[in-house]
Design goal:
This protein is mainly β. It folds into 2 domains: 99 residues; 107 residues, Jelly Rolls (Sandwich). The protein contains 1 helix and 16 strands. The strands form 2 sheets. Strands 1, 2, 3, 4, 5, 6, 7, 8, 10, 13, 14 and 16 form a 12-stranded antiparallel sheet that branches. Strands 9-15-11-12 form a 4-stranded antiparallel sheet, with no helix packed on it. A hairpin with an 8-residue loop joins strand 11 and strand 12. The longest helix is centred in the N-terminal third of the chain and has 7 residues. It is globular and about 60 Å long. The chain starts with 9 loop residues before the first strand and ends with a strand.
């Protein structure tokens, strides 16, 4: 992907789509720089990476009411492991970041005569950290069985790598079940189920982080989501990654 103007960045957190609420998103990742300099370093500092951490900030326009910003952020302040999926351009096949985090800072309201703002900061809350993948299904309907969204090329797995998936449900029907399929080609003429890579049945609004799947023996390079069962109409989004 070439350089881009940040025009349609997107953020899904559990069952809330913050894309229409925000005009600023920032992901900051860092590793502690541990000093291991000795007298043999010829006067130059020698560093080694230590513990990693990440913070994610969103800012935009405050709103209240059913399904709006304030009820979500106020209720979920300090709740751990909320499923975050976000990226720079809301297009299937585009870069997505998958993450479980807690929202520990929520700031709201501002100056007379200005639009009421909000700002929220999330921090990583488990040992997986930030996973880089692709948006497989941008926010939209899931009302019938079959392929969901678009195939994405994640490359083959390898030693120490895992397959990850996130699913966000913004509006729920009765029940929804999803599996991950793989193939050696984008056309998916011979799809295979990825063993254990299932989500659901999901019955409520919210975010699901699929249990990570050992990808060391996966040789296929293309992956997609497939709805195996659905009752009622759902509004969903999903992302996939191998890392």
């Amino acid at each position: 992907m070439a350089t881009l103007a940040l025009l349609n960045a997107w953020t899904y957190v559990d069952g809330h789509d913050f894309t229409g609420d925000t005009n600023q998103v920032n992901l900051n990742m860092e590793a502690v720089a541990l000093n291991k300099t000795t007298f043999r370093n010829n006067g130059w500092t020698s560093l080694q990476g230590g513990l990693k951490s990440a913070t994610f900030e969103q800012a935009g326009f405050w709103s209240a009411g059913d399904g709006e910003v304030d009820p979500d952020l106020f209720t979920n302040l300090a709740v751990r492991n909320r499923v975050h999926t976000f990226g720079p351009a809301e297009e299937e096949g585009g870069t997505a970041y998958l993450w479980k985090a807690g929202q520990y800072t929520y700031s709201l309201l501002g100056s007379l005569g200005e639009m009421a703002p909000f700002q929220v900061q999330a921090q990583g809350s488990d040992s997986v950290g930030v996973v880089r993948g692709q948006l497989a299904k941008k926010m939209g309907a899931a009302a019938s069985a079959g392929p969901l969204g678009s195939p994405v090329n994640l490359g083959a797995g390898g030693p120490g790598q895992f397959l990850y998936a996130t699913l966000h449900v913004f509006a729920a029907g009765t029940t929804l079940s999803v599996k991950v399929e793989s193939d050696s080609a984008q056309a998916f003429t011979t799809p295979s189920d990825v063993a254990g890579a299932t989500i659901g049945p999901v019955t409520t609004v919210g975010g699901t982080w699929m249990a990570q799947i050992d990808a060391s023996a996966i040789t296929d390079t293309w992956f997609r989501l497939n709805v195996t069962a659905v009752t009622g109409s759902f509004t969903v989004a999903a992302a996939l990654a191998i890392q």
